Amino acid sequence: MTRLRHGPAPTRQVHGTWRRVTGSAGRVRIDALADEVGWTRRHLDAGFREQIGLSPKKVARIARLHRAASLLPGASDWAEVAHTCGYADQPHLNRDFRALTGCTPTEYLAGPA
Question: What is the CATH number for 84?
Fold first, then answer.
């Protein structure tokens, strides 16, 4: 967090792409964003890794999971949450949950053990 507060500001392209990715909850195509800023996808990826510390795809994945986590508590249909958040299906949501949080959605909702 200190680096974000005291480090150099990201370029306009990286900052704008960050805002688009997080604002869309990860539902925007990275290659389309690269085209919008006039960079190749590889160049955008390198800029993100250098300035943010993560690739744009990883930021999109985290943003998508964050959105899903915010919808799960009141949801009666987790497959619908998965669809709403851009996952192909509920098993993909479950895999991302485990990969990014270390727990399943059920364990996440149960809170600390």
Answer: 1.10.10
What is the rounded end-to-end Cα distance, in angstroms, of the chain?
27
Q: 3 falls in which pLDDT band (50, 70, 90)?
A: low
Decide: pTM greater than 0.85: yes
Contact status, residue 93 vs residue 87, Cβ threshold 8 Å: yes
Cβ atoms of 108 and 69 closer than 8 Å = yes
- Distances, alpha carbon 46 to alpha carbons 11, 14, 38, 43, 56, in Å: 12, 10, 14, 5, 9
At residue 39, φ and ψ (nearest 5 deg) are -115, 160
DSSP tag of 29: -
Residues 10 and 55 placed together within one structural domain of the fold: yes
